[in-house]
């Protein structure tokens, strides 16, 4: 486990919020909402963020807080103290982090691309247009190059151990980003499409939910809160003795959900204005936002500032993913290899894996399942398929491996009524609610797939 020199109250928040807040909020959430028909799905998402995501987030942070280790060693520790063997489950979050890092790097590369486009447009040497994203998606080499640059930046920061300073610095730029987001919400909602957007987002038409929606909501809640990757175990291990983990978890979840909802108010008025956009497309945000900036007065500068901030958020989240893999490798090999070696080996593997999603729109163009291209399939397999199961495994390790007494000691703070009265609900959520919902979501999804295959026959 790496030591952080700034284990202050806010230091922990920087890390946890920094990991939760990322491309998931601004890029992924709008198109998943589009894919699942709007209002009813938004309601389902908010409900599950509080009843499933939050309890699981608290459990992960608490596993770190209790053991003061990253996920693999934390699991070994609770295996020893509880006499149960969970080792087989503990490597899964690390593998998932590695694979998700590679695919996250491709999307971060898209952000880098638009930063370059805005810079070039400012100097008048190119013109961003509605075709910018289409051209990028067709250019696999460029996507791979950009993803490699992103991976390299992340790697250098993590291997050099300078992420403490950088995370802090990124943390300070985020209030500016928040200002930009609020400004964009204001601008976007003053478009004439707002009424339609509000109806789409907040009128819950449950008939629009599909057999896949529950699973999609679970996957996105876990992804956006960074639950199931082991990252929050590592960050939980940095929590100070006097910090109350459930309160920290609640703040992180609330902040993250508010930003996600805010992003809907930015993207959907623009989507409705440009009525020809497919709202279920992963390129959605990159399709509509740059165009919006171009049409705005002084928009090139705003656009540049926005994409730079978005990139910093993506970098921060990527550092969390890479750090999880590196710190666990170091723990497993018991310092027989150094940080440099662990970092470069992880980076090389991630780079290799990046080939698949970055060539999705070019070399692997024919690899499709129905409407979905390779990048959407990878996203779906990772976030809707594996993530809920891996997160469930982690929650199981915590639930079975940590005694009720320890759970109660860390959860209940006599000074905080909420924590006192919520303890039984939290236990119920971990023991019954989360597993049932995750398994139900999975089964419905499977059933939905079988139905499609059956109908196509
Ligand atoms: N929560 C991040 C997002 O919403 O973009 C994604 C993520 C970052 C997941 C870091 C896991 C993680 F360790």
Q: What is the radius of gyration?
A: 21 Å
Oligomer: single chain
Instruction: Say which molecules are bound, naming each kind only once.
Output: 4-fluoro-L-phenylalanine
* DSSP summary: helix tally: 18
How many strands in all? 0
Q: SSE string, helix = H, strand = E? A: HHHHHHHHHHHHHHHHHH
CATH class: Mainly Alpha
SS-based class: mainly alpha
- Architecture, CATH level 2? Up-down Bundle
**N- to C-terminal distance:** 52 Å
Mean pLDDT: 87
Helix content: over 70%
Number of domains: 1
Summarize the entry for a quick read.
The protein is mostly helical and 457 residues long. The protein is 77% helix and 0% strand.
Description:
77% of the residues lie in helices and 0% in strands. The chain is built from 18 helices and no strands. It has helices at residues 9-20, 23-35, 39-67, 71-82, 87-122, 132-138, 140-159, 163-189, 194-202, 213-224, 231-236, 245-273, 284-295, 299-332, 339-358, 374-401, 404-411, 417-456. Residues 1-6 have low confidence and may be disordered. The protein is mainly α. The longest helix is centred in the last third of the chain and has 40 residues, at 417-456. It has a single domain, classed as Amino acid/polyamine transporter I. Helix 3 (39-67) crosses helix 9 (194-202), helix 5 runs antiparallel to helix 14 (299-332) and helix 13 packs antiparallel against helix 14 (299-332). Bound molecules: 4-fluoro-L-phenylalanine. Residues 19-20, 22-25, 97, 223-224, 226, 229, 231, 317, 320-321, 324 line the site of 4-fluoro-L-phenylalanine.
